[in-house]
Design brief:
Belongs to the CvfB family. This protein is an alpha+beta fold and about 290 residues long. Helix content is about 15%, strand content about 35%. It folds into 4 domains: about 10-60, Nucleic acid-binding proteins (OB fold (Dihydrolipoamide Acetyltransferase, E2P)), CATH 2.40.50.140; about 75-135, Beta Barrel (OB fold (Dihydrolipoamide Acetyltransferase, E2P)); about 145-210, OB fold (Dihydrolipoamide Acetyltransferase, E2P) (Beta Barrel), CATH 2.40.50.140; about 215-280, Arc Repressor Mutant, subunit A (Orthogonal Bundle), CATH 1.10.10.10.
């Protein structure tokens, strides 16, 4: 039987070389390089190895057996990117696998970055070269569990596995499928990116609607912090108050007047600031 990259084979050592051992199935030889050997290693024993292609395109072997092979799926971490080619992912062996640019979003900023995670398998192109391939959406959904109503309003963390015009799909660390509508995020996350959000709905099919926007009180705290930081940069005062024009507020703080008034009201309520004649001042010691 021919030796096929991306598969596991049982081979015997036929000779030793300065850089490793040559293994054979009786008709074809393949190199097991020293760097691909995990100790302990017994040259007299039958070797169970994973076959792949080295950087020169030659068939090679390793006795590290990855979970991701031809016909099997798993999570792989992005090891790096290369323009015009795609991204490289680690499956646990010495050589990283290429995920082609054809499998990636057309917008470059949405490409996975180093450390992101993708659910992939391995495949062979028409020339017999081994490469990584994104799992189809149904394969990811086959992994998923159904969420119960107790997940409502819970914080979740997950990785993005699908991008569409309407939003992003994630699978959470617990194994639930979540959807982030474009209205529930400030920026579109990358494919493979780890995101943190909160559950805003549990659907009848056990999937989640997730928001990456902060809860109202969390957003309020951030707005209040930004206001105080601006005041501190001006000696503890600013020429804005709750009757300032919405355009001025938007230009200076990047928030609506309603959000500004909520944050300012909270700061006044807890005694941190006060207002006089169109200005807002920090109280001493606050």
């Amino acid at each position: 039987m021919d030796l096929t990259p991306g598969t596991v084979a049982e081979l015997t050592v036929v000779r030793e070389a300065p850089f490793g051992y040559f293994l054979s199935n009786g008709t074809e030889d393949v190199l097991l390089h020293h760097r691909d050997i995990v100790e302990p290693f017994d040259p007299e024993a039958v070797q169970t190895v994973f076959l792949y292609q080295d950087h020169q395109g030659r068939l090679a072997a390793t006795n590290v057996i990855p979970d991701i092979r031809l016909g099997t799926y798993g999570w792989a971490e992005v090891a790096g990117t290369k323009e015009k080619l795609g991204v490289f992912v680690s499956i646990g062996i010495h050589k990283d696998m290429l995920l082609s640019v054809d499998d990636l979003p057309p917008i470059r900023s949405l490409w996975p970055e180093k450390g992101d995670r993708l659910y992939i398998t391995l495949d062979l192109d028409k020339h017999g070269r081994l490469f990584a391939k994104l799992a189809e959406e149904n394969m990811v959904r086959d992994l998923a569990k159904q969420a119960g109503r107790e997940m409502w309003n819970k914080d979740v963390t997950g990785h993005v596995f699908r991008l569409t015009k309407a939003g992003s799909s994630i699978i959470t660390d617990e194994g639930f499928i979540g959807f982030i509508h474009e209205s529930q995020r400030k920026n579109e996350p990358r494919l493979g990116q780890k995101v943190e959000g909160r559950v805003i709905d549990v659907k009848e099919d056990g999937t989640l609607n997730v928001s990456l926007l902060g809860r109202a009180y969390e957003a309020l705290d951030k707005d209040a912090e930004n206001i105080l930081a601006y005041m501190d940069s001006r000696g503890g005062k600013m020429p804005y108050w709750d009757k300032s024009m919405p355009e001025e507020i938007q230009e200076r703080f990047g928030i609506s007047k309603a959000a500004f008034k909520r944050a300012l009201g909270r700061l006044m309520k807890n005694g941190t600031v006060y207002q006089e004649e169109g200005w807002t001042y920090r109280k001493e010691g606050k």
